[in-house]
Amino acid sequence: MAIGDNRQPIPGEALGTTTFIIPIILIILNMQITILDAYTMTHGRLSLDAFRELGEVRVYDRTPAELTVERARGSEVILTNKTIIDGPVMDRLPELKFISVMATGYNAVDIEAARERGIVVSNVRGYSTFSVAQQVFALLMAVTNKIAEHNTDVKSGGWSANPDWSYTLVPSTELQGKTMGIYGLGKIGNKVADMALALDMQVLAHHKHPERDARPGVTFTGFEELLKNSDVVSLHAPLSRQNRGIINRESLALMKPTAILINTGRGGLVVEDDLVWALRNKTIAAACLDVMAAEPPPAGHPLFSLDNCIITPHNAWATKEARQRLLNESVENVRAFINGQPRNVVN
Fold first, then answer.
1. The architecture CATH gives domain 129-311
2. Domain coordinates in residue numbering, the chain
């Protein structure tokens, strides 16, 4: 068996297959649980006591790569968000049986390596659907209603000195009747569609399975048609080899000069140098980003200097309510594994 493989072979089983041996009831006395990067989930305020009911718990707010093995040594269960758990790390953690990813995306874990070693990997899905969709419209309305600009002007004396009881720095924009284009109509994309329809917007979508996922009020279209016909383009597809950099100079040139791009999905969907070009040249009107190609982004990033670009620090998912759901579901993932009935398994 491979180093770190925790399975017991079935008679006649070929080594390297993907079968897991999960007992009906997994009894591990004094279960060792290590949470490698708790801070983004808890912000230091949410309680982790529910994990302590399941075993002996070690908690670290953040774990640099060089300390991962040292901190996780002896653990049967590891919880991670962005701390990398790859094959070489797994090989140095022979007791490891379960990895719970405190996120929907699980690219921090080498899934194939875990499968080869009989290590179960689970994630958490759907915990931030409403929160991310809410952020989409918070970002959109920051552009269309110019809330920050008017607040700043009022507090610096603009209203007090104005001869009129009402004024606008620049015209605001009504969303009713505008077209929302959604790239990727999964759970979050569908919630964005719900909110857009509630604002009496038209909704276009580009999606892998238009026949399967057809719904009232949403018109499926090709990607180029989505770009050409949308007043707002919101990105919600998972990142893949096929769509990396799908928002680039060519695709941005297809959009309306009045269009707004919103990315709360994955930073890699956008070629950032091309977006800088498009914003500087008014190819599109504005961009709102909650994700970037490198996180944290480098200081002095060219997008930081652009007035028509709003950036938030990958926190669309991070309402207190969403983080509590994430924590609760992570606890249940660990509990289910201990009881021999793993849930939300991704490998």
1. 3-Layer(aba) Sandwich (3.40)
2. 32-127+322-338, 129-311
Residue of 115, 266, 323, 325 marked catalytic: 266
The b/e string for 279-288 (b: 16+ C-beta within 10 A; e otherwise) is beeebbbbbb
Q: If 0-12 CB within 10 Å is exposed, 13-18 middle and 19+ buried, where does residue 124 land?
A: buried
- Say which amino acid occupies 112: E
Identity of the amino acid at 181 = G
Considering 56, 224, 295, 321, which one is annotated as catalytic? Answer: 295
Annotated active-site residue in 58, 92, 301, 314? 314
Mean pLDDT of 244-269: 98
Counting beta carbons within 10 angstroms of the beta carbon of residue 205, is it exposed (0 to 12), middle (13 to 18) or buried (19 or more)? buried
Sign of CA dihedral 304, 131, 61, 334: negative
Burial of 65 (C-beta count, 10 Å sphere; 0-12/13-18/19+): exposed
Output the CA torsion sign for 133, 139, 143, 144: positive
Confidence (pTM): 0.87
Instruction: Let me know if 95 is a catalytic residue.
Output: no
The pLDDT tens digits of the residues spanning 45-95 come to 999 999 999 999 999 999 999 999 999 999 999 999 999 999 999 999 999
CATH hierarchy code of domain 32-127+322-338: 3.40.50.720
> Can you tell me the distance from the alpha carbon of 36 to that of 71, in angstroms, rounded to the nearest whole number?
8
Catalytic (active site) residue 295? yes
- The predicted pLDDT at position 15 comes to 38
- 212 is annotated as an active-site residue: no
**Domain pair 32-127+322-338 / 129-311, same fold:** yes
pLDDT digits (tens, 9 = 90+) for 139-190: 999 999 999 999 999 999 999 999 999 999 999 999 999 999 999 999 999 9
pLDDT of residue 17: 41
